[in-house]
Amino acid sequence: MEHASAAAIVDTDGLVTGWSEGARRLTGYPAEEAVGRPARDLLAHDVEPGAVSALTGAALVRRRDGSAVALALRGHPLLTGDGTPGGYAVTVEHPDTGTFVLTGETFRQSSLSMSVHDTGQRYLRANDTALRLLGVTEPELVGRRLSDIMEEVEADGSGFHQHLRQVAETGRPTRYETFTPASSQLGEHAWTVEMWPVRDASGAVTAVAMAGFETTEQHRARQRLALLNEAATGIGTTLDVVRTAEELINLLVPRLADFAGVDLLDWVLGSDEPAVESVTDISLRRVAHSSATEGYPRPTPHLGEQVVHPTYSVPARALREGRAVLSGPGDPDFERWMRLRNEQAPHNRAWRGRVRSALAVPLRARGTVLGVVLLARAAPGEPYVDDDVVLAEELASRAAVCVDNARRFARERSTALTLQHSLLPTGLPGQVAVEVAHRYLPSGSAAGIGGDWFDVIPLSGSRVALVVGDVVGHGIPSTATMGRLCTAVRTLADVDLPPDELLTHLDDLVTHLSAGGEGDEAAELGATCLYAVYDPVSRRLTLAAAGHPAPAVVLPDGSAHLVAMTAGPPLGVGGQPFEATELELPEGSVVALYTDGLVEDRVRDLDQAIAELCRALTASVPSLDALCDNVLKAVMPEDPSDDVALLLARTRALGADQVATWDISPDPAQVAATRTSVMERLAAWGLGETAYVTELVVSELVTNAIRYGEPPIQLRLIRDHSLICEVSDGSPTSPHLRRAHAFDEGGRGLLLVAQLTQRWGSRPSGGGKTIWAEQPLPQE
Predict the structure, then answer these.
(1) Beta strand 113-117 with 205-214: parallel, antiparallel or unpaired?
(2) So what's the pLDDT on residue 522?
(3) H or E stretch covering 750
(4) Which residue from 161, 771, 681 is spatially nearest to 461, judged by alpha carbons?
């Protein structure tokens, strides 16, 4: 059979009894070594039982040099005289030699990782690329499963054997993607794996072929794009500098770095202007860091501590040069820096020995350097490449803008708070009319500080004005507008206008200011305001509102309710009147004025919030200050989106023994009798020391009312922390000071009153006016 292409004769016991020259050329075994041996010894592994019974199938034949070759074999029975098989002639079925060799070399030399597996997931063939990746020879691989070569295959979740089995069982091709980490035998690679069934002439699946397309670069590109997309929404979620740095670190570790830290210049964490840093001594503050392995390395410095980078270090070079700096083992400056760090923090020496490369990127926004982000990658990870540098720069650029926004917000917030605190009352003067307590809580939202304000303004006649307001918008413009309105209210209150008239003048002012602004500036001038006046003598509260929530009142019996009133339009709308509401309050009532930030919330019903407010105001607490805290705790939203101002006033009343009133007929002869009555009252009050000045004041004011005013005329003395003399008449004409000439018979009265008293003035009352003068009580 030496002239046969490739054939062998096998007897019924499985022994080789004939061997052709073609078989020798194909396998390398001469006839004397093959004949007489079991045919099984010439196979790399057993053939499938079904192939034996069918006398056809694929088999892996081991060559004499130890290599293996997959052959399509066919058995031809050799019949004896009685017609039974006495042996089998086994031949090789393959195309012509030239085509077979070309096809085999194409498979072997392919740049793709290619292999053929039997239906038991064992290797039949593998090309040079697959053998090189696995680090084995074909004889070491044939007949074994991939899990025998790489133990991590079953644990990596790729499902390699599962897919092979699926293709063999279903006969359908499949495709899937897999990724091997840096710690694996193959290193960090991404693959797209194609598997398809190999069928024999009968159509049965006899093997599974596999081709692996390496897609590492595409995989990394997708990862970079995903990281950038995540950065767009994951960095800068709050206007907090430190939180923004932490968000950057969370993105970088572990996907781009095994360790990362953010160091910021000190001034970035405050509200100051950028400082000029030394070129040779760059001092920063560590605000965020993280490691891929928890606790390893143990970062130094600790969070919040100062760090000074030497000029030759990677972070210092990045700050100085204003660009990303990549370095690693082999760079003298890097080695020098590592030696210094090993001296400073020897506990991380082992980790530094594994560092493959370090990358520092300056945090730069709007032409200003804010700090630096440091990334390090350790073995078994790959060193950073140019694409990693570009990605890190993009992430750092986005983070720097967010850090700068947070810094600017903090600065504006600090400025607005300082301005607002300078405008809001800090120490309210003692009042006879009311006892007050107040709270102001600025918003922590990204919108910034609002324009909420409150005030307590002493008025003539022991009365007091209670004011609360809210300017539209946030930030410094709103605070500035609040300052304007607060000053305007105090000015109008000094004129002693009734609440509805005061709001009318304030509305005119806002309309005028808005007309002078442009665009958004005009819109920022809109505001709401509530102005209330309480008189402790009559115990009456008169109030009016411009688009502001109505106050709540708690009566001494413990009941609480909102004041029924017409809110009126917000300031700046113009063209609509404001209505005043008047009610009498028992002594000891509590009036609660507040801004809408206390009760308005996106997830809460307003009526429910008002009910909670009234319930909180009735709580039994030891003081008005404690009641303020109780209201805020019970009513204020968990995360208020607006400022909250709360002003509580507990009313007092002046008793009959502190007020004296006389009705005076318009007859000059009544002046002397009135003076006598006043002296008697002062004596009863024990204020004889004030008699001289009071007599002059009463004489002048009553005489002027009789001479220049209109009935009815009334005189009232009020004794609280000072002595107040009030004369009212029916004429709306207000008096004014003037300098009398040498020969004038009159004109000196009001000038004398102004010089003898602490302060004086006039206010409209009903259809007329009231002239008042106030003098201090004698010191006891």
Answers:
(1) antiparallel
(2) 39
(3) helix 749-756
(4) 771
Give the pLDDT confidence score for residue 616 in this predicted structure: 94
Phi–psi pair at 127, nearest 5 degrees? -85, 175
Query: Tokens for 744?
Result: 């004038």
Residue 199: which residues within 8 A CB-CB, separation 6 or more?
171, 205, 206
Rounded to whole angstroms, the Cα distance separating 398 from 389 reads 14
What is the distance of C-alpha 442 from the center of its chain?
Answer: 18
Report which residue type is found at 30.
Answer: P
582 within 8 A of 540, measured Cβ to Cβ:
yes
> Which residues, other chains included, contact 723 with Cβ-Cβ below 8 Å and sequence gap of 6+?
687, 690, 694, 717, 774, 775, 776, 777
Alpha-carbon gap, residue 531 to 453, rounded angstroms = 12
C-alpha distances out from residue 336 to 137, 313, 332, 352, Å:
44, 8, 6, 12
Check residue 488 and give left, alpha or beta (phi > 0: left; psi -120 to 50: alpha): alpha
DSSP run (H or E) holding 198: strand 189-199
Q: Give the gyration radius of the chain's Cα atoms.
A: 48
Dihedral sign (CA 122, 127, 130, 136): positive
Q: Rounded to the nearest 5°, which phi and psi values hold at 334? A: -65, -45
Burial of 633 (0-12, 13-18, 19+ CB in 10 A): exposed
Q: What angle is formed at CA 517 by the lines to CA 512 and CA 521, rounded to 5 degrees?
A: 120
Element (H, E) at 101: helix 97-109
Closest CA to 643 of 551, 527, 544: 527
Displacement of CA 648 from its chain's centroid (Å): 34
* H helices, E strands: number in the chain: 22, 31
Decide if 465 contacts 528 (C-beta within 8 A). no
The pLDDT, as a whole number, for residue 586 is 94
Six-digit token pair at 690? Answer: 């004030």
Closest-CA residue to 437 (of 610, 647, 588): 647
* β-pair type (282-291, 306-309): antiparallel
Q: What tokens were used for 696?
A: 């002059």
Instruction: Tell me the pTM.
Output: 0.59
> Which H or E element spans position 553?
strand 552-554
SS3 16: strand
Helix (H, G, I), strand (E, B) or coil at 688: helix
Sheet hosting strand 722-729, strand order edge to edge = 659-664, 713-719, 722-729, 768-776, 759-765
What's the pLDDT at 223?
77
Prior bond to 301 cis, omega within 30?
yes
According to the model, what pLDDT value does residue 22 have?
A: 85
Measured CA to CA, the distance from residue 107 to residue 109 in angstroms comes to 6
CA-nearest of 649, 717, 724 to 464 is: 649
β-pairing verdict for 123-126 and 113-117: antiparallel
> b/e per residue, 343-380, with b = 16+ CB within 10 A?
eebeebeebbeebbbbbbbbbbbeeebbbbbbbbbbee
Give the residue among 569, 711, 587 at the shortest CA–CA distance from 650.
587
What's residue 325's pLDDT?
Answer: 94
Q: Could you tell me if 395 and 227 are in contact, meaning their C-beta atoms sit under 8 angstroms apart?
A: yes
Average pLDDT for runs of 10 along the chain of length 780: 68 89 87 90 78 75 80 83 83 58 72 89 89 86 85 62 91 87 67 88 86 81 82 86 92 91 88 57 85 85 88 92 92 93 90 93 90 92 89 92 85 68 62 86 60 88 92 72 84 89 90 63 68 94 94 94 90 84 94 91 82 92 92 84 87 90 90 91 90 90 90 92 91 66 51 86 85 84
What are the CA-CA distances from residue 99 to residues 94, 105, 129, 250 (Å)? 9, 10, 22, 57
